[in-house]
Amino acid sequence: MSSLPGPITQMDGAIEATEPTSSAAIPLPAPDSMAYNLSHAGFFNENNDENGHRYVGLVNQAMTCYLNSLIQTLYMTPEFRNAIYKWKFNGNSNEESKSIPFQLQKLFLLLQTSDKHSLETKELTNSFGWESTEAYDQHDVQELCRLMFDALEKKWRNSENKSLIQDLYKGSMQDYVKCTNCKTEKIREDSFLDLPLAVKPFGANEAYKSIEEALKAFVDPEILNGANQYECEKCKSKQDAEKGLRITKFPYNLAIQLKRFDFDYNTLHRIKLNDRMTFPDILNLNNFINDTSTCKPSTSKESPKISYASIAAKKSPPPQTIKEDEELDLGKAETMWVNEPVDSEVVKNLLAKGEYVYELFSVMVHQGSASGGHYYAYIKNMDKNSWFCFNDSLVQRATIEEIQKTFGGSSGGWSNSNTNAYMLMYRKIDPPKNAHFIRTSELPLHLVELKEKWIREEEEKDLQQRRQESLVKVNLTCNHERTLMDHPIPLMIPRETSMADVVAQALEQFEHLKLLPENCRLIECSSSFDKLNEAIEDLEKKILDDYAPTYYSYLVRPEVYFMIDTKPTHEQPWFEVSKQNSYRQVDLFLVDLETEEIRPIKKLVFHENKTVGEFKQLICSLIPSLAEPASNFLHCRLVVDDEMDENASLSILDLPDISFGKCIKRAYMVAKIYVDGGCHDILEEDRKIEDAKETKFMKMLERKKFSMRIKIVLPTDTEYRQACMIPPTEREEVAKAPDNLQRSHSSLTMVSLPETSLQLTPNTKILNLSSSQPKSSALEHFPLMEGNSHGLSSMSVCNLSPHYETGYPDMCSTSDWQKHSAEQGSSGRNSPLSAAFDDDEGMDMSSIGTSPKRSPVVSDAGELSDNDNAFMSVTEQLHSEVNSRLMAIERMRSSRDQEFETETQTDSACETLIGGTETTSESVASIPYTTSIVSVDENGENKCVEVEADRRSLVVHFKTWIAQYLNLDSANFILVKHYNETDDGYESNVINETETLREYAQTINHLGIKLVGFQLASHEKLIRVCEYDVHNDDQEQWAPLFLLPASKSTPVQEFLEKCQAYLKNVYKSEYRLEQLRLRDLSEHGAVVMQLTDTLEVRGQQWSKNLYLQKIPEEQLSFSRGDPVIVRQWYPSKLEVGKVFEVFLPPGTSNVTKELRRILAQRTGLPFERIELSDAFPDKCWTKWPYSKGILELAEKVRFNTEILSPEAGFVGKLVYFKDKNEFTKNISDDEKRAIRIKEQSVNVTRSTWRRERPLRIQMSSVSEDN
Prior knowledge:
eight-stranded mixed sheet; seven-stranded mixed sheet; 31 helices; 52 strands; disordered N terminus; USP_CS; Papain-like_cys_pep_sf
């Protein structure tokens, strides 16, 4: 006998084949009730149903294997399938998609008649009301079964099938409590649709051996005695009692769930129980049925309702079990199975003992762990008496040996140890009632009509699918200046379409351009449209499939990329398209000086041996607007940008006779060439400027090349307060920009250039040095930050409007200036800048002008205004002092930039030959690098500003610009680099003076700003101060107040005075010093810092968080002294009261007596009845809130009227107290377990895995009617 392949078990996302098994000596009943053995060939030939039709599988949408297993089980239930077939849908076509019974009927009929290998279940899940993503959530098959039955019952409320679920699956039981003294019973009738049987008793190490043992434990009563005695109404006293369940009726179809998923209370994780648990093919339940005639229920209707979870968890006598590691004999397991037809003598003998004898027909198997896995099912065709394995799309014959491997345990080997039965379906053996499947030839008339309709629909779907699979995605663009900026247009076109039809469809997409077919051609391009590969000719002789890629076409849809090329007239010749190395790919951009935008206008190919003049003539003939009149084509200016080298200069192609190839440095790259355009008068005026770098054309290109956008997340009001600064929204006076500053309203089509910008150059300084600048706080040793928070006299800039932009080519930060002054041997106050700016009395600050110069990016540098001349003497001195330093920085940058050069420098003759008049960068001190605000977003939690900056500018200058925008000093904040939206950020406090924005911010997502209210000395650190909240156990939720500088030697009183001042100025809260206390949370408790101490008393962790306690005025009278944290313990209720603090008078001799006196006064308890616990924490490494658990208080914590730990003391610690006369409740083992679980679960860290959505089936408010 040849060996048979085992079933292929498909985990969601992986497929593996189990070990092949042999079918020899495996008796399988034949359809004529005679046992026979299958050959290898017969095994596959018998993969048909009772109609001779091959079984059809179900497609797994994503993780819907549990749904497929249940649907196939219901389909293979004769009574359920027949009822579905007989039911007739009376709704309209629009309601079909929402009707669950209708979709089940359609799916069942197609499973019986379709010739497909597998069917989709999307229409069924759509009727559930599922979204597409819900197919990616795996759920429990038993939960789905209950939900589906509930949905069907509601749908069938007014139909002929209204009692179908109850008739097939409903069983009944009695939930009873019986007094052992008077024998009186309280009974509550209940029903069930499935029986949940425990695999392993709660707390046991060994599992039940079989489902019969689990079922016996299910119905065995629990004895209520001792503290759990039952209050008998008849006896009028507590009595021992029996509490349990009695099954009074088993359903026709019995569903049994094996509770393999459990919760480990030690690890607090879900686990799966893979223990071996056998089940028979013929199940005799006569011994488990209760004779209701012997029950004498009481007239009382009240009875406690219990859940299935409590049923499985209740105690029961230890079962006879087997150990997991015990050697198992599969032959013994086979003897448990009758393995006979239902009309055999063995079965008849069982029926003679009672009617409750059941036949196994479905085993739903789970393969995997508690966190996920795969479901499939072994299902028996009861008409053929044959077993099949339904594993999603795959259906094949199964052997009894394979089914018995699902008992569980380790018998199946390592690969099968996590594969076991999870849900079983039995049918009652009742020959007169047992139905047979409706044969295909006997289908009801309404199904025959629907079958033809559905088959046509399925054929149409198949045809549509084949059509979809034959489609090629055509990405289309047009080589026209009005469309090159648009995204490619996607078209879905069949492979067999001729290229002429493709062009016709393409031209329809560009009707608005009014293109003539004779002036258009089709060019095949690369995927990014940067390479033009081939101009397609002989369109009628070629089809789209000739250009569709064939690699991976069976996995992904093929894509092609075409471009419609245009020319102005029919007589105009086409430029030649070639892949040869001598042809250069060119992207042509128009720099419109009138609208101040840069946009692509043409893609073309040009031979390297042709001249620049010929190239100009070509582009002017293709785009006539570039040369008006046509004879002026040589006047247009062309610039080449080498994008590979970010530091490379822009080259002007101004010599017409130079070879085009010599102007393009990188032959393998697409050349980006810019041509000027716009209003004729503006063009002519700009072309007259002799110095190329001063032209508007070059300035626009330079800004386009070197600009970068950076998102800055600004600090919140809370962050301002924590840094001891007044938030901008709460400042009394907000500096306003001068009225004479014009705002920019330029559009941002490609590169937006504002009309004016606020510039800070060596010749123009925009400063506001009026005496109205906010002064420092009266507390000189810790000034309050507002605006320029340090009150530095060197400079104070105006508050910038979001519509202005500021350049800062040579502005040093304050620290840079002071360092430079120190190197020159003079103090900062003696420098020319500080001398001029510090003397407020000797200078009329109101006369200083703030009118900005027009931006040289947009306009020429004009003459200085009168107000600017007022500053010339000061700025010239500043320039002379810092210029040498900045030039040194520039030399360092130039030396570094040379390392990035990839091309060998040619001599001047060669440069002249190429004709590239190159613009060279000047020193840092002379280039007005600008920063412009593009947008401001105030909708989120944090205000965000997006700016456009020159990436060549130094980071120190950019930080200066941010300081001006925030009206802060650069030393009062740190830039934080964020590489995604959610990370914590990387602080970059130390900034390299020569580091550019490109180097600093090229890879970041956004910049954050961390406020620093103080400049720290070398021995100082910032200490975070949070609000002390004794009522909140979660210390992480205590509100942070501010960060304050301090050193080890800082007195506590001085630190507390700082807190008092900042509460008043930042939070507008006034407290007297005696109302404030500093608390230090440690293993010694929440101790109060003494005013006479210094912070050094805290030890090595002197700079960790401190907690500020604010005492209201009305509570101050009874809040003087040493604090003790107290909570009341209620042992009779196993509860703990709210926490509060009491205060012991200083110098108290008998602390215990005084504490009891205060508690008696606060709570009303008699003094002599108050007992105290030890003071906590009593161990090292104990953290807030120092509390004890319920069980620990009940069993371990000692209470007494005398002091229990005099050496430790009570100050700042937690002390429990209780009433001496209150009795302690006797806690059962179950209650202890529940308390322990509750307390442990509070500290469990929440899982970071994606939260699983609950399984749902959407119920319709209107039922199906006849």
